[in-house]
């Protein structure tokens, strides 16, 4: 049991390290890129983003992470239905946490794309509060790991 606990702790640590990259390092790199005076971003593309496209991207970025509960349920359901269950429960929980943080990272990716195509720093920075909200909401927490594992274990004991 102690080995299993340490595996869970390792997966939680790895999920948090990936989350740091997704929602701290990556957004900072985007900011550094946006404010780099040595590069003329207007040369990147000829496509321009108008205000309507910006609003659509912002709304999509704000709403896209709302699908994470459905993805989470689907991953758990698929795991529970698989008869062999080759994947260990703590790996499943890690994959859930990782997929949720990828959605938060996606918000910052929208910021980068809007900046590249509009050359409007203000528009790009509008995505940062949204990304920060989702990063805090979807951050891998120990209690989430424990809840998922209890759910998996309780279902496994019912079926065996």
Give a short account of the largest sheet.
none
**Coarse shape:** elongated
Give the low-pLDDT segments.
none
Order of helices and strands: HHHHHHH
Count every beta strand, where a strand is a DSSP E run of 2 or more residues: 0
Sheet-strand content, in percent, reads under 5%
Radius of gyration: 19 Å
Mean pLDDT: 84
Q: What percent of the residues sit in helical stretches (DSSP H or I)? A: over 70%
Measured distance between first and last alpha carbons = 20 Å
How many helix segments? Answer: 7
Number of domains: 1
Protein structure class: mainly alpha
Textual characterization of the structure:
This protein is an all-alpha fold. The chain has one domain (about 1-160). It has helices at about 1-35, 50-65, 70-80, 90-120, 120-125, 125-140, 140-160. Helix 1 packs parallel to helix 4, helix 2 packs antiparallel against helix 4 and helix 4 (about 90-120) packs across helix 7. The chain is elongated and about 55 Å long. The protein starts with a helix and ends with a helix. The mean pLDDT is about 85.
What secondary-structure arrangement, pairings included, does this model have?
Blueprint: H1 2-34, H2 51-63, H3 68-81, H4 89-118, H5 121-125, H6 127-138, H7 142-159
Helix pairs in contact: 1-4, 2-4, 3-4, 4-6, 4-7
Short description:
This protein has helices at residues 2-34, 51-63, 68-81, 89-118, 121-125, 127-138, 142-159.
């Amino acid at each position: 049991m102690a080995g299993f606990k340490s595996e869970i702790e390792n997966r939680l640590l790895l999920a948090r390290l990936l989350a740091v990259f997704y929602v701290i390092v990556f957004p900072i790199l985007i900011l550094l890129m946006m404010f780099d005076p040595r590069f003329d971003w207007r040369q990147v593309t000829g496509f321009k983003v108008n205000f309507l496209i910006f609003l659509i991207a912002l709304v999509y970025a704000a709403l896209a992470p709302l699908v994470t509960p459905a993805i989470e349920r689907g991953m758990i359901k698929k795991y529970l239905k698989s008869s062999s269950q080759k994947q260990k429960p703590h790996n499943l929980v890690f994959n859930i946490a990782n997929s949720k943080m990828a959605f938060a990272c996606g918000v910052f990716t929208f910021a980068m794309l809007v900046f590249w195509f509009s050359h409007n720093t203000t528009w790009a920075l509008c995505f940062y509060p949204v990304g920060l909200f989702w990063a805090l909401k979807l951050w891998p927490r120990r209690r989430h790991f424990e809840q998922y594992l209890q759910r998996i274990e309780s279902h496994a004991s019912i079926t065996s």
